[in-house]
Amino acid sequence: MTESKELSTLINQSLALIDQIQKHPEFKATEYHPDLTLGDAQQALLELRWQTLPPSEPIKIFSLEGFTS
Predict the structure, then answer these.
(1) How far apart (Å, rounded) are the C-alpha atoms in residues 5 and 51?
(2) 39, exposed or middle or buried, with CB in 10 Å at 0-12, 13-18, 19+?
(3) Where are the alpha helices (DSSP H) in the chain?
(4) In whole angstroms, what is the distance from residue 62 CA to residue 22 CA?
(5) Which of 11, 23, 38, 66 has the fewest beta carbons closer than 10 A?
(6) What is the mean pLDDT of residues 7-35?
(7) Which of 15-24, 28-37, 57-66 has the highest mean pLDDT?
């Protein structure tokens, strides 16, 4: 039986691993130039993390500006 981790935990672990890969001396020494980069993968994970956040209350811009509704 496998343990299921929270999606947010998996996303954060993935981002940390990509960061470690980018900083690794062996990776820096490669001549690896794919169409999609590790930066693209990070961006995709950041967008996924944003999409999985719980919905928050909408910002009430008019009340911030001093108007009442």
Answers:
(1) 17
(2) exposed
(3) 7-23, 25-28, 38-52, 61-64
(4) 44
(5) 66
(6) 93
(7) 15-24
Q: Report the SS3 class of residue 3.
A: coil
Cβ neighbours of 49 (radius 10 Å): 15
Query: What's the pTM value of the predicted model, to 2 decimals?
Result: 0.69
Residue recorded with tokens 């980069």: 37
pLDDT of residue 1: 44
Q: How far apart are CA 24 and CA 29, in angstroms?
A: 9
The type of residue at 60 is: K
Q: Burial level of 54, CB count in 10 A (0-12/13-18/19+)?
A: exposed
From the number of C-beta atoms within 10 Å of its C-beta (0-12, 13-18, 19+), residue 41 rates as middle
Q: Output the six-digit token pair for 13.
A: 């672990």
